[in-house]
Amino acid sequence: MLLSGKTALITGAARGIGKAIAQCFAAEGADIAITDLAYDEVAQETEKELLATGIKAKAYASNAADFENAQAIVQQVAEDFGHIDILVNNAGITRDGLLMRMTEAQWDMVINVNLKSVFCMTKAVQPLMLRQRGGSIINISSVVGVSGNAGQANYAASKAGIIGFTKSVAKEIGSRNIRCNAIAPGFILTGMTASLPEEKLKQWTDQIPLRRGGTPEDVAKAALFLASDLSAYISGQVLHVCGGMTC
Ligand code: NAD
């Protein structure tokens, strides 16, 4: 078991990639705290599935981009679980549109949820990890944060921001044995991509050397590597999980 005795806190994990990461970590013995905007039926079902694996698990309603709320939820999780060894900043949204048509609200919302949340949650968890003298922080970026994408200037900027944040934090707290890495998923089949028309889907997969969209589990396995001691000497890096789409 790669993560036995560890507690992982994963944001936006009621569904999609976050849920797959939670399940993958649970299968390796970690206790799991998940957050999402609401403690609704979807979050409750995920919590139930995690509990059924025999680990300790709890779902919390929390807006990761709200500074005060991030502080409060981290404190609550630390009280409930005793420690937080792994933070996965996964919560994210898209509000796509060409720059010409993009509204200020679309810009602010995506930067807030995707980038500010990473600041809020990492800042909240940092004092705990400093005291513990150890931890692994994993930020979910995107390949478009590296390559850019027409119609996603707000999203790409938020994901590029995550990469700069990751590399800076890795330098600030590496001496305390806290690692900070990012994952840049490519085209992953989740709720976020489910609404794409068939034709667009084919266009995307044709550009992928491995000729398929990724699964949430593909991303989860990379997260497991970065969360565990298998990557003990790796920090400040961006791991692309994209079927070879970007190099
Ligand atoms: P998803 O929409 O299936 O799940 C995202 C979850 O985040 C949802 O449950 C949502 O309620 C939650 N969330 C949204 N705002 C939140 C907030 N402020 N606080 C807490 N939770 C919040 O999306 P997904 O495809 O699983 O994406 C997960 C992450 O992976 C995102 O950061 C996304 O940008 C990134 N990503 C996804 C893809 C892809 O192709 N699906 C590719 C690259 C990167």
Compressed to H and E, one letter per element, the order equals EHEHEHEHEHHEHHHE
Shape: globular
CATH class: Alpha Beta
Q: Structural class of the secondary structure composition?
A: alpha/beta
**Low-confidence spans:** none
Number of domains: 1
Strand order of the largest sheet: 3-2-1-4-5-6-7
What distance lies between the first and last C-alpha atoms, to the nearest angstrom? 31 Å
Short description:
The protein is 47% helix and 15% strand.
Name a few traits of the molecule.
single chain; 247 residues; alpha/beta; Rossmann fold; seven-stranded parallel beta sheet; 9 helices; 7 strands; globular; binds nicotinamide-adenine-dinucleotide
